[in-house]
Amino acid sequence: MALASRCQQITFEMTQPPDEPHPPQMNVQLHKAEPSDMQVVQNLVGYYIYDLSEYMGWPCTPEGHFVGCAPWLTFWSQEGKHAFMLRSDTEIAGFALVDGSQKNQEMDYLMAEFFVLRKFRRKGVGETIANQLFALFPGNWVVSQLVKNTPAVAFWRKVIGCYTNGVFVEKTDSTQWGEINVILFNNTESIKADRTVIKVA
């Protein structure tokens, strides 16, 4: 598939998240991504695209790489976009991109990309980090996944269901990449009621 087409795909939130039935066992922390992290994320995007290729059927390049595209760079430069690194001590554990630049009546924040390295999956890391991201940004949230990416659908349905006590809307939509599952919820009141302070390094 052409790189330009793949770039368009990445603007949809088609995440390959961890499926993690166990409580947290690793101390993974959320850090605001710095300009020096841009190259790190670029390197991680290859693994992210590789994971998604299971569902999208993307081939690797003739050189043996899985490559992403440039729109993620805007999360360091465009107002309303937020980039985060996941780290366990000094070890890289993944990245997350939150888009708050496309606000409308239905959406304040989009979980644009969410990637946890396999070593850290199935240990509660993804759920913990997702909850911390939600707590940083009160408002109407949209999180979407490819319907055929059943682990992603199950993960986000579980995480958001627990986070909202089951108060969310779920629907499907059609895109050029296939059917996507879309989860919408509002966390404004729950954050007001929760006095926990989320600190991002």
Structure, described:
The protein is of the alpha+beta class and 201 residues long. The chain has one domain: 3-Layer(aba) Sandwich (Aminopeptidase). 30% of the residues lie in helices and 26% in strands. The chain has 5 helices and 7 strands, in the order αβαβββαβαββα. The protein has a 7-stranded mixed beta sheet, with helices on both faces. A hairpin with a 2-residue loop joins strand 2 and strand 3. The N terminus is likely disordered.
Helix content: 25-40%
SSE topology string: HEHEEEHEHEEH
Distance between the termini: 38 Å
CATH architecture: 3-Layer(aba) Sandwich
Structure classification: alpha+beta
Going across the major beta sheet, what is the strand order? 1-2-3-4-5-7-6
| Mean pLDDT across residues | 83
Radius of gyration, CA atoms, in whole angstroms: 16 Å
Provide the low-confidence segments as ranges: 1-16
